[in-house]
Amino acid sequence: MNVLQKILEAHDVTVWLIASAIFVAVLVAVPIARYLGARLFASLSRRTGVVWGDALADALQGTSLVLFIPIAAYAASLSLTLPEDVAHIDALVAIIALLLQVAFWGNRAIGFWLKRKVESKRVTDPAGATAMSFIGFGARVLLWTFVVLLGLDQLGFNITTLVAGLGVGGIAVALATQNVLSDLFASLSIVLDKPFVVGDFIVVDDLRGNVERVGVKTTRVRSLDGELLIISNADLLKSRIHNYRQMAERRVLFTVGILYQTPQEKVGRVTQWLREAIEAQDGTRFDRAHFKEYGDSALVFEVVYYVLTRDYNTFMDVQQAINLAIFARFAREGVDFAYPTRTLYIAGGAVAQTAT
Length: 356
What we know:
356 residues; alpha+beta; 3 domains; five-stranded antiparallel sheet; 10 strands
């Protein structure tokens, strides 16, 4: 209280009015400069096509008026005569606030750059989009580490000793955060090894969907039902992953059963009918059709063909057309599909047949 009283008594009203005017002027100038700067850089980007103009405009939106209060107070204090310790604290607080503001600007700039890169690579280079997310995280870590170290240096800490101590402390932290580090290294493995990338359709155990984002700790998968599945990266790599995006074509195997009462000459021609039904469809490649086995209630034929695309809807359209073609051909040839039946032979020659 005595220090404040001495400062008040050491300056007349004119000096205090000047200091107050400087304080208010800085706080008024900040939002104006933020608005005009953002418009200027955005306009420059539209005229010239340079991306950094939009990046600077977006970064300026991260300007915090609260952080500029200690900076405005420091600017106002330059017109006053303050005790050395008070002036030092005032300058120190202003520097810390400025470092935080720079960090916020840098964080927004990295976020803007990352968003642009991911959007541009999502279609042309999905693997690159996955890597960009990890690079963006690393850039943010470096930025905040640099800012924190500068702040500690201003507070009088010995940075060299601190950095050396981090090596020993890092071991203890690593032991305490094994799960987090496991997910972190799993994320790095996903980025480098690329078992899947953003946009791939994957199946993990009984979960399936499109990969939307590969984060530092988790991967986000949008399921077919629409919900967002969040899976730990470490757990993901421990599972068997089916990546359907990497599939160039789809192999299809299905069986058809006909009645045991079917005439022998027609049984011998079924494989040809099945082949014709498949080859009549565009975008398919016939592999084989065989009389596979004598089933409990049917003569079983096994068919294998390929759909020359990985698209699931296309595959289902083709399979539906093949099924309809087989149904029409069997009806035309007088061949009946089998269904589970049981035939009972009763003493005296009577026969009873029931469906099951």
